[in-house]
Design brief:
single chain; about 425 residues; Purple Acid Phosphatase, chain A, domain 2; Serine Threonine Protein Phosphatase 5, Tetratricopeptide repeat; six-stranded mixed β-sheet; 16 helices; about 15% strand; globular
Length: about 425
């Protein structure tokens, strides 16, 4: 079986844009092509919308006219979901960002990620929406032409970080039935993690992981696609290929050399040939944010405006551009930016909070103070504002004030993780 993994020069991609890696095959010769992407969840609950780069990944992927799309999981934040209503909103936001795939009627197969299993509400919402309707299971397989796609679940209750029990027995039978086809496996947690999640992937149970790998090799699995780690990584361990494709929007980890860049995969199967194409994505929002932190205001505005043209209703490009207009004393553009943000975010408090949160993230501390104070004047019981004001005062080394603000924030949230973090910060600042 001929396998081909095509590399790219990431530096050139980031400098000059990105595109599909060329091959000798003509489109009419392509028997089957599919896309792999995932780990597109929001960074945190303070920026709750799907990341800008996921919209771009969807747009680029659909343009390739794939026969199907595989998603490596972690569609939503999940850990902040404390009600059915909250779960519905997060998954609705994912589906809104995914609408182009649905409109083109491209089959989308999603493996469950750990973020969908953090709370009972997020787990229930995922199962309700994405369980296979034919099998009634979170693990199943799909045949298409000479290819066999196996979707496994590394997040089953009481079986996280392992493929075991009934799922394993089903897998053995399914692999046997698929002999002679190109077999591709999709699951969330890697067999062989890199950079991060080194202790909570399938290697948490090395004996079971190794037995699973041997099973895959026995049936000549062509590739295992995983996520969980927000990087690109390709590895071959004792003859088994694994691609970590975790770059569709969640916060990246490591460095460019580690594979920390936004991307997805385009795979073309033509007879016995499999062509794996890594598609890097230039993230204008991320680059504009970096430029803003470096004080390169004009460059940040330019990239943000480019992103605004591509996706005019995503808040982040407008937040970055509006911050730049404020710093550059461009009053007309600034007022237009505020008006647009009001239409997207539906309220002054949220607009001022999001501007303050962004300015804090890029170390524009005085401007962050300006926006957070305006948000607080509208609502003195906002957890988001008090929590970030406390962080701001910590950055400004006003530790006593920061402690007071953390204490203001503490009773305003039910989130256990936030409560714990606030208590830890207060102890650190004493």
């Amino acid at each position: 079986m001929k396998r081909k993994l095509q590399g790219v020069c990431i530096l050139l991609v980031f400098l000059f844009g990105c595109g599909t890696v060329s091959t000798a095959q003509r489109p009419e010769e392509q028997a089957l092509n599919f896309v792999v992407m995932g780990d597109n969840r929001p960074a945190n609950e303070f920026r709750p919308e799907q990341p800008y780069i996921y919209f771009k990944a969807v747009q680029k992927a659909v343009a390739l006219d794939p026969a199907l799309i595989l998603n490596t999981g972690d569609l939503v934040l999940g850990y902040d979901v404390d009600s059915r209503e909250k779960a519905k909103k997060e998954f609705d936001d994912f589906e809104k960002a995914t609408a182009l795939i649905r409109e083109k009627d491209i089959p989308l197969y999603i493996t469950m990620g750990n973020h969908s299993g953090y709370t009972e509400f997020s787990r229930e919402a995922f199962v309700e929406r994405y369980i296979n309707k034919d099998t009634g299971s979170l693990y199943y397989s799909v045949d298409m032409k000479n290819c066999h796609f196996i979707i496994l679940c590394s997040e089953l209750e009481n079986e996280a970080s392992q493929i075991t029990g009934k799922q394993l027995e089903w897998l053995k039978g399914d692999l046997k039935r698929a002999e002679g086809k190109h077999i591709f496996v999709l699951l969330h947690r890697p067999l062989y993690p890199k950079i991060e999640h080194l202790k909570d992937s399938l290697n948490k149970y090395p004996g079971k992981r190794d037995a699973l790998a041997e099973l895959f090799k026995q049936y000549n699995v062509s590739m295992v696609f995983v996520g969980h780690v927000h990087v690109y990584n390709f590895s071959v361990v004792d003859g088994l290929g694994q691609i970590i494709a975790g770059g569709s929007g969640a916060p990246l980890v490591g460095t460019i050399d580690d594979g920390a860049f936004n991307h997805f995969f385009h795979v073309i199967v033509n007879g016995d040939s499999i062509d794996y194409r890594l598609i890097p994505l230039q993230n204008e929002v991320q680059l504009a944010t970096q430029l803003m932190e470096e004080g390169r205001i004009q460059g940040a505005i330019s990239l943000a405006e480019k992103a605004m043209e591509m996706f005019p209703d995503h808040p982040m490009p407008h937040i970055i551009a509006t911050t730049g207009y404020k710093l550059d004393d461009r009053t007309v553009e600034y007022n237009t930016g505020i008006t647009k943000l009001l239409s997207i975010l539906k309220g002054q408090e949220e607009v001022f909070f999001r501007l303050g949160e962004f300015c804090l993230s890029v170390k524009l501390l005085d401007l962050s103070d300006y926006y957070l104070s305006k948000a607080l004047a509208i609502n003195k019981n906002s957890f988001n504002v008090w929590y970030h004001y406390a962080q701001l005062k910590t950055e400004q080394k006003q530790y006593d004030t920061a402690i007071k603000m953390y204490k203001k924030a503490l009773p305003l949230t039910k989130n256990k993780l936030h409560k714990q973090k606030i208590k830890e910060r207060i102890e650190e600042l004493k």
